[in-house]
Amino acid sequence: LDVTSYIDERRDPYKSTAAAIKYLGNMYKTYGDWLLVVAAYNCGPGNVNKAIARSGGKKTFWEIQEFLPRETRSYVPALIAATYVFSYPAEHNLFPRMIDFSFAQDTVHIARQMMSLKHFADITHTDFYLLKDLNPELKTDFIPYTPEPYVLRVPMKTGQFFASFRDSIMQLATRLNLDSAKVVYSD
Q1: SS3 at position 71
Q2: Dihedral angle over CA of 82, 88, 92, 94, nearest 10
Q3: Most exposed residue of 20, 81, 114, 143, measured as fewest CB within 10 angstroms of its CB?
Q4: pLDDT averaged over consecutive 10-residue blocks of the chain (187 residues)?
Q5: C-alpha span between 157 and 114 (Å, rounded)
Q6: Is 93 left (phi over 0), alpha (psi -120 to 50) or beta?
Q7: What whole-number distance in Å separates Cα of residue 45 and Cα of residue 37?
């Protein structure tokens, strides 16, 4: 996952989930035990390998836990407890809130141009804070310049508007960005 001064893909729910699935799958191939996988996720496979070696080659979390970092010794049981509570919420007087995930989203591709997210929101008549919520990987209020087109998640209506007026939107955004730069850098 990329982490730059503009983006942190670890905060992107799609990319971070895909990366976690890949990582967990690779760790399961290595250890063959889900609790060791969780330990490796928390403290890294190097620490798990050292704990296995220090334990004399034992291969379960419970057998090597004393050789793991303190945080990991607590992390694995805490995850087990959280899993239990999520599996039996009513027994603990917890009732999940249903969330409407039917919100229609689209993506637009911003090709090789840095653009203010605020300008994009204004031009496309989209709520700025909704754009920020849909794109949590953005560390700043700018859509970064990237060699490949940057994929920005937007409401469906914004995607349709962008598709209809792409060239005009990009020209206007370029002009607004240049005007902003003149204000910031003028003497």
Answers
A1: helix
A2: 90
A3: 81
A4: 91 92 96 97 97 96 97 97 93 81 84 86 93 93 88 93 87 72 38
A5: 22
A6: left
A7: 8
